[in-house]
Design brief:
The chain is mainly alpha-helical. It has helices at about 1-5, 20-30, 45-55, 60-75; strands spanning about 15, 35. The chain has one domain: Sugar-phosphate isomerase, RpiB/LacA/LacB (Ribose 5-phosphate Isomerase B, Chain: A, 3-Layer(aba) Sandwich), CATH 3.40.1400.10. α2 packs parallel to α3 (about 45-55). The mean pLDDT is about 90.
């Protein structure tokens, strides 16, 4: 799912298997989509990951905004 999603312009999909990664990908990369493996994590952890990801805002600031801008620039170069 994640591999297919990142082929779509404007999609920043993150493969997440724990709550730390869920928080970090929102704060640092402004992810707009999650990919999670059903066989890797259970329903309880899935709910925790979703709750944290949905409540976590993008941590704006030069460092992280530059990172997202670089990702968007790559989209313009790669078909």
């Amino acid at each position: 799912m994640g591999i297919a999603a990142i082929k779509i312009k404007g999609i920043r999909c993150a493969l997440v298997q724990d709550t730390f990664s869920a928080r970090a990908t929102r704060e640092h990369n402004n992810s707009i989509m999650l990919a999670m493996g059903e066989r890797v994590i259970g329903p309880g952890l899935t709910r925790d990951i979703m709750r944290i990801w949905l409540k976590t805002p993008f941590e704006s600031g030069r460092r992280y905004e530059n990172r997202v801008n670089k990702i968007e620039e790559m989209e313009q170069v790669w078909p």
